[in-house]
Design a protein that fits this description.
192 residues; alpha+beta; 7 helices; 3 strands; 14% strand; globular
């Protein structure tokens, strides 16, 4: 785990943001599998999405609090603008499809509005979220509201890394043994 976090930090320091993001998005997978092994489908296979989202929501969502703030113990955002479900959707889109298109993350409509969703990754700048809508037409139809969330890649990677590092330090390292990458550095033998 610590090797992965160090590589993410190295990638961020070298401004290799997409590489850092790709590796960062794997950390909730690892931690979610360890924390929630009982989240399984009826066929006995891991419910990866549920494990991932639950771990993110319980460990990393505090970094994405909106103006309502945090729970009394400051461990979670009351109303995060970037959730575990959204992060899992980003992980799937980014790692499997090579894009940042995430699914609609909330209601498609309610009694007054239709909703569309826009998610943006940013380099530099701050995280942001907001709503915009067009003027209602004369026929009293529902208005289309667009919910937009913009997340800074650096902030997202660092937030996941801090949460994963804290999680790792709370757990027995043996729990992570199945999540190591065996890497032989043949270049280190050249200088002997």
């Amino acid at each position: 785990m610590l090797d992965k976090i160090n590589d993410i930090n190295l990638a961020l320091n070298n401004k290799n943001y997409l590489s850092a993001l790709a590796l960062s998005l794997t950390l909730p997978d690892i931690c979610g599998a360890i924390e929630y092994p009982h989240f399984i489908h009826k066929n006995g296979k891991r419910n990866v999405g549920k494990q991932y989202a639950a771990w993110f929501d319980n460990r990393a969502n505090r970094y994405f609090a909106d103006n309502t703030g945090w729970t009394k113990d400051y461990t979670r955002a009351k109303n995060p603008y970037f959730t575990g479900e959204m992060c899992y959707s980003l992980r799937c889109s980014f790692l499997h499809d090579g894009n940042s298109n995430i699914k609609n993350w909330d209601n498609k409509e309610d009694t007054d509005f239709f909703y569309s969703y826009e998610f943006e990754l940013a380099i530099g700048g701050a995280n942001s979220f907001g709503l915009s809508w067009a003027t209602q037409s004369n026929n009293d139809s529902k208005i289309m509201k667009t919910k937009t969330v913009r997340v800074n890649i650096y902030t997202l990677c660092k937030s996941i890394c801090v949460a994963a590092d804290n999680y790792y330090r709370e757990k027995d390292p043996i729990l992570f043994k199945d999540h190591n990458i065996i890497l032989i550095d043949f270049n280190s033998f050249k200088n002997r």
